[in-house]
Amino acid sequence: MADREAGLTPREQALREDLGREYYALVGAVSDFDGRLMIVKGWSVTLSLAALGLGFQTQHYALFGLGALTALGFWFLDLLLKSFQVRYYPRMRDIEYVASQLNSTTVPGIGQVSSPRIDMYWSYDGGPPAQDWRGEEPERLDSRMVHRLVRVKPWFMPQVLLPHWVAIVVGTGLFVAGAVDVPWLAHLGP
Description:
By secondary structure, the protein is mainly alpha-helical. It has one domain (8-123, 133-181). The chain contains 8 helices and 2 strands. It has helices at residues 2-5, 10-58, 62-86, 89-103, 118-122, 143-152, 158-161, 164-179; strands spanning 105-107, 111-113. It has a two-stranded antiparallel sheet. 20% of the residues are buried.
């Protein structure tokens, strides 16, 4: 009854409900990816550090290279999973935009309010009050922004690079140092 009073047609009400279910299913999918990403990072650290430690224990510098290659493989897997995860963000933002068209109301002192807005609010960093856009309509992501988010940004995200690149750099450095017979690693064989 309240929805009829708000001016929503039965079709708009059904759309609102379907979008709400889809949105929270997307939030669940994004959260599930976070769990998978932590597993990948855990395996990367475990296997890479094990290879580095085993290289010192068995005195074979080739294991340093193996540790670096292992971390490189896990980094690529982490990158793929993150690029799959961020593909959900544009749809989440579209749902937030449509929800603002169907649900928004103006609250004095705050501005426009609608729900959901999880994706939109994620980028708010509390900047200067003159740049407080939280009370504005959610911005849809254009094709350039989506391309950058899906194809470019994951390659440079610190949460994707770490901890893999630490093991890659350390493993590669130790492998090269062992191969060129740096004095403190000269006792290691291939």
